[in-house]
């Protein structure tokens, strides 16, 4: 187990003038939700997620040593899909400020960050998880050049640690399949500081688990996740909710092993609705679901009752619906989505995804 102090390097044994790296990092979908945080991006409760495969961010980092050293500011250009993107810069600036103590070389280089997503822009799919994870991987590649002795374990855990400082859920996008983040007594090696691969047996029912993302509303969210997390301070149900997340995570440990999909569905759907219940009971209160979100949920419940096919939904902090189901019922569920759910999607749009392996060096 690493502590935050382990991620502050003493000295670097190597140096480099310029070069570039490229990494892709996927999005992830939480089954037990991270909702509420303490200072320094420490989660108020543990969470667990499926890493996705197709929805990802691809980021190229070019670096050149600066002449004026030591410099007092960060120097970087940001390109999104090949074009300068000024409005993303403050978020990156803040990220660099937060991680500088862990990567003391950051002010010594000028960076060009060139990033793109595989999913449509403004689809309502959060790109902060995949985006921050991809950037963190690139910075770790540079740190590894400066410190070639670094172990693989340190490389990935620190990448997740840094990604967390960019966006909490991003720490679950570094590694694959099933990732837990946050201290949980029954999950060995779990930490508030970074995500870890789920360390126990996972039943084959979850192999290639499918996630079809129904794009219900592609508009900007009225309330950002960061504001939503903040509203968990002094929230009337916060303490009970945080305790419930621990309980649900313990239940999932058993469910992952047994492959009991009926129990899986209960935990996952309850988590999704609880997340939105927390928003509706915050002060100020708000609703991110749309009428079509509810239409889809009801249609899934009806289909599941009638067919006994183990399909369920989860939600993130928005109106889109993630439809989760095992691979062996894909044909039937996709037909159901086509026949009955696509009408509720904006412009009939949806994205087929499934569990994936985490960040990849390109
Ligand atoms: C509802 O990770 O986007 O998707 O740490 O403020 O960047 P910040 O928040 P973020 O919150 C994600 C919340 C969620 C649930 C989850 O992914 O666990």
From TrEMBL:
GO terms for molecular function: ATP binding; carboxy-lyase activity. Gene3D superfamilies: 3.30.230.10, GHMP kinase, C-terminal domain. It holds the Pfam family MDD_C. Keywords: ATP-binding, Lipid biosynthesis, Lipid metabolism, Lyase, Nucleotide-binding. GO terms for biological process: isoprenoid biosynthetic process. InterPro entries: GHMP_kinase_C_sf, Mev_decarb, MVD-like_N, Mvd1_C, Ribosomal_Su5_D2-typ_SF, Ribsml_uS5_D2-typ_fold_subgr. This is Diphosphomevalonate decarboxylase. It comes from Flavobacterium tructae.
């Amino acid at each position: 187990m690493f502590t935050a102090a382990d991620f502050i390097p003493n000295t670097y044994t190597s140096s480099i003038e310029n070069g570039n790296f490229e990494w892709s990092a996927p999005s992830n979908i939480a089954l037990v939700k991270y909702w509420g945080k303490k200072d320094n991006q420490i989660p108020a409760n543990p969470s667990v997620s499926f890493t996705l495969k197709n929805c990802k961010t691809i980021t190229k980092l070019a670096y050149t040593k600066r002449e004026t050293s030591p410099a007092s500011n960060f120097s970087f250009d940001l390109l999104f899909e090949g074009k300068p993107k000024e409005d993303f810069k403050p978020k990156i600036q803040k990220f660099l400020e937060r991680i500088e103590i862990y990567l003391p070389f950051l002010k010594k280089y000028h960076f060009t960050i060139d990033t793109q997503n595989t999913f449509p822009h403004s689809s309502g799919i959060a790109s902060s998880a995949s985006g921050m994870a991809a950037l963190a991987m690139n910075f770790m590649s540079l740190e590894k050049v400066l410190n070639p002795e670094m172990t693989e374990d340190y490389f990935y855990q620190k990448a997740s640690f840094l990604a967390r400082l960019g966006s909490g859920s991003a720490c679950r996008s570094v590694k694959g399949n099933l990732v837990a983040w946050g201290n949980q007594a029954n999950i060995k090696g779990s930490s508030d500081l970074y995500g870890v691969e789920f360390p126990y047996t996972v039943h084959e029912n979850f192999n290639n688990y499918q996630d079809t993302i129904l794009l219900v509303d592609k508009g900007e969210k009225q309330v950002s996740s960061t504001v939503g997390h903040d509203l968990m301070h002094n929230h009337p149900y916060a303490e009970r909710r945080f305790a419930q997340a621990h309980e649900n995570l313990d239940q999932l440990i058993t469910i992952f092993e047994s492959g009991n999909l009926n129990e899986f569905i209960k935990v996952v759907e309850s988590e999704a609705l609880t997340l939105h219940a927390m928003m509706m009971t915050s002060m100020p209160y708000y609703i991110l679901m749309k009428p079509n979100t509810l239409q889809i949920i009801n249609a899934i419940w009806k289909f599941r009752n009638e067919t006994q096919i183990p399909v369920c939904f989860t939600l993130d902090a928005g109106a889109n619906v993630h439809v989760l189901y095992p691979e062996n019922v894909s044909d039937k569920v996709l037909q159901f989505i086509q026949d009955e759910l696509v009408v509720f999607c904006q412009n009939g749009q949806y994205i087929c995804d499934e569990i994936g392996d985490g960040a990849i060096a390109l």
